[in-house]
Write a sequence for this structure.
């Protein structure tokens, strides 16, 4: 039972309930609507687990995000969502690697299980939005070239994904809000896909669970930033 004590000591009751509820809904929807694509089930499980670690500011969450991005890119390919495939394999996964390195290099008070929260200034924020526009335009033309299904939400997904990965790399609490916005867009995308094949409803449920976890992640990071800013927290 040592592993149980470690889990309950590290994660709060809210986090444990959130994770268990997310996994339950993901497995339930898989059993009802899919029952075949175990790759989707594995990706969903890894994704929701990565988010609960990310909410704690733990770099292990970024490692899981790298694996999730690889699997999700493969899943997107099956429905010709080339935008999602290119975005996750060509942008989200590499940026998750950079974020993992950045988080490992910036522990809070030497604790490698918690990253130091960062704040970006107005100048960098302006640069970030300029880069976001440039990336969005570039990827839009790439998506058009590949005849990507549902081009408008697919392009919007690129925009929110870039914001999310950039803010994650820079250790800003707002990365979770950007991911939440991306979750909403992905829910729309996979709802459209499920019209043609009900098995994709399990993916919709997956991103619904991601949305709840990302909202919690933002709240957690805001509290973490406040705690880290307190003088008594510093050695």
């Amino acid at each position: 039972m040592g592993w149980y004590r470690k889990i309950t000591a590290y994660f709060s009751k809210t986090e444990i309930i959130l994770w268990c509820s997310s996994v339950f809904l993901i497995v339930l929807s898989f059993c009802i609507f899919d029952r075949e694509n175990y790759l989707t089930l594995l990706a969903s499980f890894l994704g929701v687990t990565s988010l609960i670690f990310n909410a704690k500011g733990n770099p292990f969450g970024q490692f899981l995000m790298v694996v999730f991005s690889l699997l999700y890119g493969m899943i997107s390919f099956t429905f010709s969502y080339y935008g999602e495939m290119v975005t996750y394999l060509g942008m989200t996964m590499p940026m998750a690697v950079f974020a993992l390195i950045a988080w490992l290099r910036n522990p809070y008070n030497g604790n490698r299980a918690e990253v130091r929260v960062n704040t970006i200034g107005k100048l960098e924020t302006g640069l970030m939005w300029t880069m976001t526009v440039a990336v969005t335009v570039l990827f839009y033309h790439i998506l058009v070239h590949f005849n990507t299904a549902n081009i408008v939400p697919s392009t919007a997904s690129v925009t929110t994904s870039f914001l999310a990965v950039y803010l994650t790399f820079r250790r800003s609490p707002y990365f979770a809000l950007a991911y939440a916005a991306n979750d909403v867009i992905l829910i729309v995308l996979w709802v459209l896909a499920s019209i043609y094949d009900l098995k994709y409803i399990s993916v919709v449920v997956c991103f619904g669970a991601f949305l709840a976890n990302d909202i919690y992640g933002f709240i957690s990071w805001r509290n973490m930033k406040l705690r880290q800013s307190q003088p008594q927290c510093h050695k």
Q: What stands out?
A: The mean pLDDT is 89.
